[in-house]
Amino acid sequence: DNKTEIIQKERGRIVDVSDKIVNIESDYVFGKSELHIIDNILLAQEFYPKGEKVDHLFDLNTFRYITSTGVLGRGPGEITIPSGLLVDREKRAFWQLDVGKKVLHKFPLDSVLSDELYLPGTSVKLVDTLLLVYYGFLNDSIALGKAIEPFSGSPFVTMAMVKFNINSGEISRFGYENPKVTGRFTNSYFALSVKDGIYVNCYLHKDLMTICDLNGNLKYNVYGPGWDDPEKDDNAYFGEVIIYDKKIFSAYQGSSRIIVEGNMQRGAYPKSIIVFGLDGSYQKTIETGSEIFSFCIDEKNNRIIVFFNDREEPLGYFDIPEL
């Protein structure tokens, strides 16, 4: 059905914010982090923790460091290999995924703020071999998201859409998958909006975004300029994605995923964020001029907070530009 297939050859509405980024000078030093917001708290989950805790909390308005939680270790309630957060804003809590123990630990915000030594009492054991990576709550007991499947005989990670029961720990496959995306190309970033009745997958190695309803039915396949070009299969395309204010915001690269600096190679990161309508229509490209490791949207202040990969002050923010 052509209504579901959207082809975008041109995405040329560029808004440059590179000179509008405000550095956030933190009194607490931490490494590359995934960013989230709960109430007035900016939450940073550190990817390769330097200290003994993995999750760092800051005041959203002043960026003052408050506390850290998520103790690294092998004991009860401790985390061996941190791998992503599931944020429940309604209940003011977050769940820390530990792929080492295959568990999700629950951290209620109030407990963390009132007890520096807090260890989670509630944990959910993941019963399946599928490992959750990006996910969001559909209701009190069900989360939807992308999971990694162990793929025998291949060095590449394959991913699948799943439904996860937080009470039983059970994970089952769910919803539409684009039949043209298989094997290592299945890696995607995921976002869910119950309010808007959609979830989105933005693919890392294919210039594709799929938008589905909450029952897993396809609404739109959105193909970008790099789609279906075998010469561009080594490019990286989408990064992290967030649904906010009736729009879809996703980090976007569209170029080689390797950068050569001197005689060293390293992975590249997106420098821009593309804004789409909920129907997949292209709206604008926000160009930051710096590599985006992770970002979140501060709805109260209508700004985007970014952990940059290549700036002296890795944390910064800019106001969301008008269309």
Q: Count of helices? A: 1
Q: What's the count of strands? A: 28
The largest sheet, given as strand count, sense and whether it forms a barrel, is:
5 strands, mixed
Strand order of the largest sheet: 1-19-18-17-16
Rounded to an integer in angstroms, the radius of gyration calculated over CA atoms is 19 Å
Low-confidence stretches: none
In what range is the share of β-strand residues? over 45%
> What is the H/E string?
EEEEEEEEEEHEEEEEEEEEEEEEEEEEE
The chain-level structural class is mainly beta
> For the terminal residues, how far apart are their CA atoms?
30 Å
Mean pLDDT: 90
Principal-axis shape equals: globular
Provide the helix percentage.
under 10%
Key structural traits:
five-stranded mixed sheet, 51% strand, mainly beta, 323 residues
Quick gist of this model?
By secondary structure, the protein is an all-beta fold. The protein has one helix spanning 109-114, and strands at 5-7, 14-16, 22-23, 33-38, 41-46, 53-59, 65-71, 82-88, 93-98, 103-108, 123-125, 131-137, 142-149, 158-165, 171-173, 188-193, 198-203, 208-213, 218-223, 235-244, 247-256, 258-261, 264-267, 272-277, 282-287, 292-298, 303-308, 315-319.
Structural topology:
Layout (H helix, E strand, L loop, with lengths): L4 E3 L6 E3 L5 E2 L9 E6 L2 E6 L6 E7 L5 E7 L10 E7 L4 E6 L4 E6 H6 L8 E3 L5 E7 L4 E8 L8 E8 L5 E3 L14 E6 L4 E6 L4 E6 L4 E6 L11 E10 L2 E10 L1 E4 L2 E4 L4 E6 L4 E6 L4 E7 L4 E6 L6 E5 L4
Parallel strand pairs: 1-19, 2-25
Antiparallel strand pairs: 3-28, 4-5, 5-6, 6-7, 8-9, 9-10, 10-11, 12-13, 13-14, 14-15, 16-17, 17-18, 18-19, 20-21, 21-24, 22-23, 24-25, 26-27, 27-28
